[in-house]
Amino acid sequence: MDRLIHPVEATQTDFLPINGTDYVEFYVGNAKQAAHYYQTALGFQMEAYRGPETGHRESVTYVLRQDKIRFLFTTALDPDHFVAKHAHLHGDGVRDVAFWVDDATYSFAATVERGAIPVHEPITFQDEFGTVVTSAIRTYGDTIHTFVERNHYTGPFMPGFVAYQNPHFAPTSIGLKYVDHVVCNLELGEMNTYAQFYANVLGFRQLVSFDDKDISTEYTALMSKVMSNGNERIKLPINEPAEGLKKSQIEEYLIFYKGAGVQHIALATDNIIETVTAMRSRGISFLQVPEAYYDEVLDRVGQIDEDITPLRELGILVDRDDEGYLLQIFTKPVEDRPTVFYEIIQRKGARSFGKGNFKALFEAIEREQSLRGNL
Ligand code: FE2
Q: Could you give the residue range(s) of every CATH 3.10.180.10 domain in the chain?
């Protein structure tokens, strides 16, 4: 069951203030086409670009934006470049979950002093729009956290990038607002290691913990802890596989991603029915729970504002906690390897993660795993 941890005492100071997620960067095989997919299918707008035309000869990066969500897609132009090697090993995947901070120099020093492994020391980038300072530390697998200090910058993304828009192509937003949480899959035995890493090195606290009794089906099981920074703008559920009768969805991910990495990114919307309707019409496929889910859902969660008919039609799930309820739905993996997927979430008071849907959801995932021959 949920073991909710009480909020930190007011006397405890948050030694690592984080304003929110600055960006999520994907290393991909073909950034131009990935950027097009995220514009057409998920309603992102092109914001900035860096590549050979701007004097950067090793790689290209497209910066996409939807409200507070910023995604970067980067591809190397040489097979020996580390971005190319990352994409070769992992497939298209998340390299960097970057945090927006007021002081990237301090954030680096404070976390490295507490045991973080450095990726790069603070670097100051400057142009006519001001300065951006970044530093970075390692986390699970080949994933990193970059600290981005951009409070004195007014240009597009950061120095080295140019504002970039195709005047003939303006995809409309689908109402995605911000990154709600970013979930990783870890190797067996790593969950507590990284829970301690986020607690001791970044000053996060554990919001909630799920064990294999909460998250298990006939075949598979997993364990999860949700780590959060002081203001809860960064929420990172960390999963590891648990003993089950067959290969868990976490193990399938680890096999195809070749190690630990980001499993899903939850994106928040204020109107999940409109958002999911738009995504579906633009070609995104979602996991489907059985019809029977809707026969009992209102008995379980009680009164909700939404009409059940469109929820049932779209396959949107509902769960309730002490503070309210939430609506959520999960896409199928958005690439050919069964790795990264998205959650669309609308919170109506609830601060939890949809525990009441775990069983129906994991059975839906298993049906997909079975189709892939991986169960
Ligand atoms: Fe989630």
A: 8-163, 176-372
8 Å CB contact between 238 and 311: no
Q: What angle do CA 236, 366, 258 make, to 5 degrees?
A: 55
CA of 80 to the centre of ligand 1 (A): 35
CB contact at 8 A, 46 and 259? no
Rounded to the nearest 5°, which phi and psi values hold at 183?
Answer: -105, 135
Those residues whose C-beta lies under 8 Å from the C-beta of residue 260, and which sit 6 or more positions away, are 140, 141, 143, 184, 185, 186, 187, 190, 254
The values of phi and psi at residue 73, to 5°, are: -120, 120
The pLDDT profile of the chain, 375 residues, written as one tens digit per residue, is 344 444 444 445 689 999 999 999 999 999 999 999 999 999 999 999 999 999 999 999 999 999 999 999 999 999 999 999 999 999 999 999 999 999 999 999 999 999 999 999 999 999 999 999 999 999 999 999 999 999 999 999 999 999 998 888 889 999 999 999 999 999 999 999 999 999 999 999 999 888 777 777 777 778 899 999 999 999 999 999 887 767 788 999 999 999 999 999 999 999 999 999 999 999 999 998 888 899 889 999 999 999 999 999 999 999 999 999 999 999 999 999 999 999 999 999 999 998 888 888 888 888 888 899 988
Ligand 1 centre from 354 Cα, in Å?
8
Q: How far is the CA of 265 from the centre of ligand 1 (A)?
A: 7
Q: How far is the CA of 16 from the centre of ligand 1 (A)?
A: 24
Q: How far is the CA of 256 from the centre of ligand 1 (A)?
A: 20
Architecture of the CATH domain 176-372: Roll (3.10)
**Domain 8-163 is in which class?**
alpha beta
